[in-house]
Amino acid sequence: MAIFLNNDSKVIVQGMTGSEGMKHTQRMLASGTAVVGGVNPRKAGTEVEFEGGTTVPVFGTVAEAMEATGANVSVVFVPPAFAKSAVVEAVDAGMPLLVVITEGIAVRDTAEFWAYARDKGTTRIIGPNCPGLISPGQSNAGIIPADIAGPGKIGLVSKSGTLTYQMMYELREIGFSTAVGIGGDPIIGTTHIDCLEAFEADPETVAIVMIGEIGGDAEERAAAYIQEHVTKPVVGYVAGFTAPEGKTMGHAGAIVSGSSGTAQAKKEALEAAGVKVGKTPSETAQLMREVIASL
């Protein structure tokens, strides 16, 4: 089993013919993902041949791509200025899962397309500013390296792309049902809580790793949700313990005000909910190994 993405996922790529789109479409294809089309209005009707002999058709719109291929996932590699219109187009077409890799999208644009998608009620958005998600051995939608870990029974949800990769590599001997990089922007589509709910419902996920970072209150809210609704063991890590107070850090969402949003506050909230929190990614991975050994 997996969450959101599986063997039946048929992926299209909005912005496939750009440099990032081409590079990562090649990587998705190499990992066994069923990439069935690209979208670029200026190149509609053409085809792109990738290494390995796979030829992918290019469509003018998301709706045309869905009708022709049965696609149920779209990955967005569109530049920030055009990302909002790309998302709205996918939502209007009824795309079930939309993975927005693009970083640097204006927060107002994200707020508007997130609200639009919520009101339509048909599209789950992951991101923006995220690495996407992977169900190892089944499908890979985004930029997560497919060869760092295989299928297994851990669920992973993370705000940070690089920490997603590190945790997958550290726990590669156990493997993952699905790893989801939700993105670090102040406004994102799918949250920690959405993933926790899905992993709780997935019969083949036995334990969950949750990676957060300083700024906002997403981890505190996730802790409250875990306390009420999650029966599976959760191990956590919060990036930013050594961040100097008042300094702007990498992600736009990593804004700390007072004691709210600090790594320590998040750690305390998670531990109060029964989550074991590591001080480093490696210590967090070791805590998960101990959890798996005890099951």
From TrEMBL:
<dbReference type="GO" id="GO:0000166">
    <property type="term" value="F:nucleotide binding"/>
</dbReference>
<dbReference type="InterPro" id="IPR036291">
    <property type="entry name" value="NAD(P)-bd_dom_sf"/>
</dbReference>
<feature type="binding site">
    <location>
        <begin position="101"/>
        <end position="103"/>
    </location>
    <ligand>
        <name>CoA</name>
    </ligand>
</feature>
<comment type="function">
    <text>Succinyl-CoA synthetase functions in the citric acid cycle (TCA), coupling the hydrolysis of succinyl-CoA to the synthesis of either ATP or GTP and thus represents the only step of substrate-level phosphorylation in the TCA. The alpha subunit of the enzyme binds the substrates coenzyme A and phosphate, while succinate binding and nucleotide specificity is provided by the beta subunit.</text>
</comment>
<feature type="binding site">
    <location>
        <position position="43"/>
    </location>
    <ligand>
        <name>CoA</name>
    </ligand>
</feature>
<feature type="binding site">
    <location>
        <begin position="17"/>
        <end position="20"/>
    </location>
    <ligand>
        <name>CoA</name>
    </ligand>
</feature>
<dbReference type="Pfam" id="PF00549">
    <property type="entry name" value="Ligase_CoA"/>
</dbReference>
<keyword id="KW-0816">Tricarboxylic acid cycle</keyword>
<dbReference type="InterPro" id="IPR005810">
    <property type="entry name" value="CoA_lig_alpha"/>
</dbReference>
<dbReference type="InterPro" id="IPR005811">
    <property type="entry name" value="SUCC_ACL_C"/>
</dbReference>
<keyword id="KW-0547">Nucleotide-binding</keyword>
<dbReference type="GO" id="GO:0004775">
    <property type="term" value="F:succinate-CoA ligase (ADP-forming) activity"/>
</dbReference>
<comment type="pathway">
    <text>Carbohydrate metabolism; tricarboxylic acid cycle; succinate from succinyl-CoA (ligase route): step 1/1.</text>
</comment>
<dbReference type="InterPro" id="IPR016102">
    <property type="entry name" value="Succinyl-CoA_synth-like"/>
</dbReference>
<feature type="binding site">
    <location>
        <position position="165"/>
    </location>
    <ligand>
        <name>substrate</name>
    </ligand>
</feature>
<dbReference type="InterPro" id="IPR003781">
    <property type="entry name" value="CoA-bd"/>
</dbReference>
<comment type="similarity">
    <text>Belongs to the succinate/malate CoA ligase alpha subunit family.</text>
</comment>
<dbReference type="GO" id="GO:0004776">
    <property type="term" value="F:succinate-CoA ligase (GDP-forming) activity"/>
</dbReference>
<dbReference type="GO" id="GO:0006099">
    <property type="term" value="P:tricarboxylic acid cycle"/>
</dbReference>
<keyword id="KW-0436">Ligase</keyword>
<dbReference type="GO" id="GO:0009361">
    <property type="term" value="C:succinate-CoA ligase complex (ADP-forming)"/>
</dbReference>
<comment type="subunit">
    <text>Heterotetramer of two alpha and two beta subunits.</text>
</comment>
<dbReference type="InterPro" id="IPR017440">
    <property type="entry name" value="Cit_synth/succinyl-CoA_lig_AS"/>
</dbReference>
<dbReference type="Pfam" id="PF02629">
    <property type="entry name" value="CoA_binding"/>
</dbReference>
<dbReference type="InterPro" id="IPR033847">
    <property type="entry name" value="Citrt_syn/SCS-alpha_CS"/>
</dbReference>
<protein>
    <recommendedName>
        <fullName>Succinate--CoA ligase [ADP-forming] subunit alpha</fullName>
        <ecNumber>6.2.1.5</ecNumber>
    </recommendedName>
</protein>
<dbReference type="GO" id="GO:0005829">
    <property type="term" value="C:cytosol"/>
</dbReference>
<feature type="active site" description="Tele-phosphohistidine intermediate">
    <location>
        <position position="251"/>
    </location>
</feature>
<feature type="domain" description="CoA-binding">
    <location>
        <begin position="4"/>
        <end position="105"/>
    </location>
</feature>
